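Attaching the record inline, Q. Sequence:
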Amino acid sequence: MYDLSTRKRALALVAQGRSLNSVSRETGISRAALRSWHQRLEPLPREAPAAPGPPADGPAYGYLLGLYLGDGCISAHPRGGYYLRIACADAWPGLIEQCRQAIAKVRPGVGVYLAKKEGYVMVTSYYRSWPALFPQHGKGKKHERLITLESWQQDLVDAHPWEFIRGLIHSDGCRITNWTTRLVGGEQKRYEYPRYFFTNLSADIIRLFTTALAQVGVEWKMANARNVSVARKASVALMDAHVGPKY
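Structure, as predicted:
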């Protein structure tokens, strides 16, 4: 007989895509037992995720937190542990790689793989304590529930605001070029100017974003109830220096 923690550890290894042979060699558990646990219909009893300790890399966590709040989710594995998934559009291969690197820096040693979908990639990582690192995880859509930061998260965001801003822009934001015309000397002339937009349905996430912008001296305004605009020349220059367009 094996205790619950032993079974959950072995099944977590199997869930990472490891073969039964390799897991058996590492754990000393027979392939027959592993196969039986893996194929059983009822899930193992779920325990609250253990406290994983602080993120290994503060700046990487700030960036990953922004990505998670925009386009991320956490889902439970039926037999224990959790998957962190961040959706990244195919149009931004640099973003996909930055996301992969951020996960690896935040929790060194976890597996990170890319699940190809139609038009996007789901950057995915299995780890038993993802909910403890992202306590905003919960049932339902983010904009339908309260989103606040734990004190340790706020401390990291305060220490690394630009990384947090960049993560939010890379998930739910963009840098675009607007244009307008002006009458000069009787002739209509076209003028182009860059601006940043951030779009989110959650008033709480918008508040976190604009609070971070204010901290670093970026002027912003609400274009409408769910769109934040940064258009002032000096503020756009700051965003360009620290965030930049997706690639």
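The two ends are 52 Å apart (CA to CA). Residues 41-46 have pLDDT under 50 and may be disordered.

More tomorrow.
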